[in-house]
Automatic annotation (TrEMBL):
It is found in: Cell membrane. This is Branched-chain amino acid ABC transporter permease. GO terms for molecular function: transmembrane transporter activity. It comes from Glycomyces luteolus. Belongs to the binding-protein-dependent transport system permease family. LivHM subfamily.
C-alpha cells in the first residue's frame, strides 16, 4: 500500500499544477479552461524537438518549451478569449475545447502520432520511498510543486496579485482605480500557460508521451482536483491534486487488486468528490457564494 500512496502523491502533484492553472483562469474569467492540458503538451513536444531532435542542451529545451507554452497562452488570450469576452461562458468554453483539439491535431501533423521518450532532467536509479521506486524526476516534481505553491502565495500578496484579485471580483471598479483588464487578462493567461508548461515538462520524462497526452490523461483529474479544493482557491487546487492522485492509486490497490472491481481509480475519485461536495458544496477551501 505504501508504494501506491507514494506514487499517488507524485501523480497528484501534476494534477495540482494543472488545477492551479484552471483555478487561476476561472477566478479571473469565470470560464473553464479546457486548453490547460495542451499548454503542457506544447511545452513537452517543443522541448523534445530541441533536446532530442536538435541535440541542444537540456536547459535550452526547458526554456524553449516554457516559452512556447506561454506564447500559446498569450495567443489564445488575444485571438480567442478577448474577442469572446462579451459572449456567453458556454461559447467561450466550446472555443477553448476547440483550441485543445486544434492543438492536438497540429502536433499530430507536425510530429506524427507516435510514442516518444523524453530524457529526464536527472538520470539515475530510483529512491525507495514506502516501497516504491521513485525516480529523481518525480522528486523534482514534488520540489517544484512546493516552490510554486510558495511563489503563488507570495504573488497574490503583491500589488500585481491584488490587481488580479480585484479585477476578478469587479472589473469596472478595478478600471476606475486604474487597473487595466487587458493587462490582467494577459498576465493570468500567461501564468496559467506557464504552470501547464511546467507540468508537461515534468511529467513527460516519467514515461512515454503521445500527442494529447496531457489532455487525455491529466485534464479530467485536474478539473476534479480544482472542484475538490474549491474552484476559487489556489491552495485548494494544490491540495485537491494531491488528494485525487492518492485516492486514485489507493483505489487501484484496495478496489482493483484486493476486490477486483473494474474502474477502481475512477470509482475512488467519484466517491471522494461526492463525499466532499455533500459535506462542503464549495469544496475543501472554497468560499460560499
Amino acid at each position: 500500500m505504501g508504494a501506491f500512496l507514494a506514487l499517488g502523491l507524485f501523480q497528484g502533484a501534476v494534477y495540482g499544477l494543472l488545477a492551479v492553472g484552471i483555478v487561476l483562469v476561472y477566478k479571473a474569467k469565470r470560464v473553464f479552461n479546457f486548453a490547460q492540458g495542451e499548454f503542457g503538451g506544447v511545452a513537452a513536444f517543443t522541448a523534445f524537438a530541441i533536446v532530442v531532435g536538435a541535440g541542444l542542451p537540456y536547459w535550452v529545451g526547458v526554456v524553449g518549451g516554457l516559452a512556447a507554452a506561454v506564447a500559446m497562452g498569450l495567443i489564445v488570450e488575444r485571438v480567442i478569449v478577448r474577442p469572446l469576452e462579451s459572449s456567453s461562458r458556454t461559447i467561450m468554453l466550446v472555443a477553448l475545447v476547440g483550441v485543445a483539439l486544434f492543438t492536438i491535431a497540429i502536433i499530430v501533423l507536425l510530429g506524427q502520432p507516435i510514442p516518444r521518450v523524453m530524457p529526464p532532467l536527472i538520470s539515475g536509479g530510483g529512491v525507495n520511498i514506502l516501497g516504491a521506486g521513485i525516480l529523481p524526476q518525480q522528486l523534482i516534481l514534488m520540489a517544484v510543486l512546493a516552490v510554486l505553491a510558495a511563489a503563488m502565495a507570495w504573488f497574490f500578496k503583491t500589488d500585481m496579485g491584488l490587481a488580479v484579485l480585484a479585477s476578478s471580483q469587479d472589473t469596472r471598479a478595478a478600471q476606475v482605480v486604474g487597473i487595466s483588464p487587458v493587462a490582467v487578462s494577459r498576465l493570468v493567461w500567461g501564468m496559467a500557460a506557464l504552470l501547464g508548461g511546467i507540468a508537461g515538462l515534468l511529467y513527460a520524462p516519467v514515461g512515454i508521451f503521445t500527442p494529447g497526452f496531457m489532455t487525455l490523461t491529466m485534464l479530467v483529474p485536474a478539473f476534479a482536483a480544482a472542484v475538490l479544493g474549491g474552484m476559487t482557491s489556489l491552495p485548494g487546487a494544490f491540495i485537491g491534486g494531491l488528494a485525487i492522485g492518492v485516492v486514485q492509486n489507493l483505489g487501484i490497490y484496495y478496489l482493483g487488486q484486493q476486490l477486483k472491481v473494474p474502474g477502481a481509480a475512477e470509482l475512488g475519485v467519484f466517491a471522494l468528490l461526492m463525499l466532499v461536495l455533500l459535506i462542503r458544496p464549495q469544496g475543501l477551501l472554497g468560499k460560499e457564494a
